[in-house]
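Predict structure. Input: Pyrroline-5-carboxylate reductase, 276 residues.
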Amino acid sequence: MVATPIQTESFKLGFIGAGKMAESIARGVVQSGVLPPQRISTAIHSNPNRGIAFQSLGITVHSHNNDVVEACDVIIFSVKPQVVKKVVLELKPLLSKKKLLVSIAAGVKLKDLEEWAGHGRFIRVMPNTPSAVGMAASVMSLGGSATEQDGELVSKLFGSVGKIWTADEKLFDAVTGLSGSGPAYIYLAIEALADGGVAAGLPRDLALGLASQTVLGAASMAVQSGKHPGQLKDDVTSPGGTTIAGIHELEKNGFRGTLMNAVVAAAKRSQELSKT
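Output follows.
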């Protein structure tokens, strides 16, 4: 059976799970104009503050997940990985092939999601926490019955909170190690740069501001310039200057190897967790 195309000009979006990531995605979708808030809904079961957060965006808040599924064409499962099976199985009678299903639950494979839902019109997406400021790095993988149009629609939704790529699901553990866990590595780097500034005599507030803006500016250069990071590094590094002295110190202490090992270790741990 061919999947019924989603009417992109009138579809309704529902969130099963109303946590911070769901709120970030919903906020991006509304603020970017991808969807008006009247076509988005979620359900709140226990924490009224979560309902207030969504209602402040103009989003409809129901009392039950069933109401969200019945009202919507595209359903994003944004619950914790350990409860996603229970939630999908509870809603299975309502999850017809007419509905496009999306999961952002880390470590939960498409084959399991498809089995629980009873069909393969599922797309798995891995966003990361910078979704909260519209700077996410997300990756998606399409299930067996998801169409190219389904993928385009999901790209548009998640593109409202950053950038999104498509990749084979077998790469998702590596994605977790890099973009999923990566923000934490960068926060450590920002903190360390700021501490270095303080050690060199800067006031704490100035050091932290300079460190954060420097990382943001360097990342923007890497994205926008089209140059290889090595070339950008060479552009800053004059012979016998200050920058090469600092880089020499980083290389002596295995800076690049340490970051590489962090990504590989996190990817390995993701692989272990997905088997439990």
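The chain has two domains: 13-172, 180-274.
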